Amino acid sequence: MAAGIYIGSTSGYSGKNMVVMGLGMRLQKDGYNVGYMKPVGAVPQEMDGVMGDEDAFFVQSVLGLEEPAELVTPVVVTQDFRVRAFSGQCGNLMPSIAEAYDTLQQKRDVMLVAGSGSMYSGRYCNVDGIRVVKELGLKAVIIDRLHKELNYDYLVVLKDTLGDSLAGVILNDIPANYINEVDGLIKPFLESNGVKVLGVIPKDPLMGAIKVGDLAERLGGKVISAQNKADKVVENFLIGTMQVENFMTHFRKNKNSAVIVGGDRSDVQLVALEGNCPCLVLTGNLYPNDIILTRSEVLNIPIVVVRDDTYTVAKKMEVILSRHKLRDVIKIRQGAQLVSSSLDFAYLKEVMGI
């Protein structure tokens, strides 16, 4: 029997893929034969005529696994599935998940089982994380990503619900100025409530970064100059709607930020280009003048033109940067390194009995 560990989270987009890959790569490096499963797939993708989950295909490729999609993700949430589930026609899905798990875990030392959404996602068809952990007899590791504040109540409630099945929690994306509060207040509070903190992963700008070319695509815009530099990385963004002097003050503090600015604000555009920003995002479907275009080519700084207004683009950017998928090799390596150096592996192995 393989040791089974479920990686769940308090909400979607918390870093489950990063932790699964980081754990998997570290355990493989330590000589363990690692298997992987994502029982419920929320991002349907067809590959070689079989429906599976986009993240599951990706994680398998990173870990060098080639298991059939119907075993790795026995439940794929398509529109058709939702309709059936809400009208009470999806039947009992747990036996097929348990059967797939049983098949996959043969010949493995450790099974990593990835959650989808939060621990209660999938409750409408009885395949939520709580149920999966209990039915498959797994140990759970729950990720809580800092978004304004940590979900410490949720973590304590999970301990009440899961009991000894909760191996511990990982606090993710913690900025440097919040580490003292986490170490001095939150960690002791959680541990006094029986919640083991397995690791605190610091905020790393690279993990939320996105390439200019991908950004243009996600914003529904196009790169109109310095296209050969569309693989530059954007970590953050600044809105250039203010006066040039005020803009310069902000810009000096945020060097790796894309600058979102109206296509008619050539004054701000020029300051951003000369200050070597990673890219300009011009809004309102307005093209820049020739001076700006020439400087962009000379300085190798791409310009993206988008249809939306500045406010809409800024809202979209916020979502993109908080949810950008971990796809680039550099980010996978960086993520694996963050997980490896932040987690208490000795404790985890002890809990898993490996």
TrEMBL record:
<dbReference type="InterPro" id="IPR027417">
    <property type="entry name" value="P-loop_NTPase"/>
</dbReference>
<dbReference type="InterPro" id="IPR028979">
    <property type="entry name" value="Ser_kin/Pase_Hpr-like_N_sf"/>
</dbReference>
<dbReference type="Pfam" id="PF13500">
    <property type="entry name" value="AAA_26"/>
</dbReference>
<comment type="subunit">
    <text>Homohexamer.</text>
</comment>
<protein>
    <submittedName>
        <fullName>DRTGG domain protein</fullName>
    </submittedName>
</protein>
<dbReference type="InterPro" id="IPR010766">
    <property type="entry name" value="DRTGG"/>
</dbReference>
<dbReference type="Pfam" id="PF07085">
    <property type="entry name" value="DRTGG"/>
</dbReference>
<feature type="domain" description="DRTGG">
    <location>
        <begin position="214"/>
        <end position="318"/>
    </location>
</feature>
<dbReference type="InterPro" id="IPR050500">
    <property type="entry name" value="Phos_Acetyltrans/Butyryltrans"/>
</dbReference>
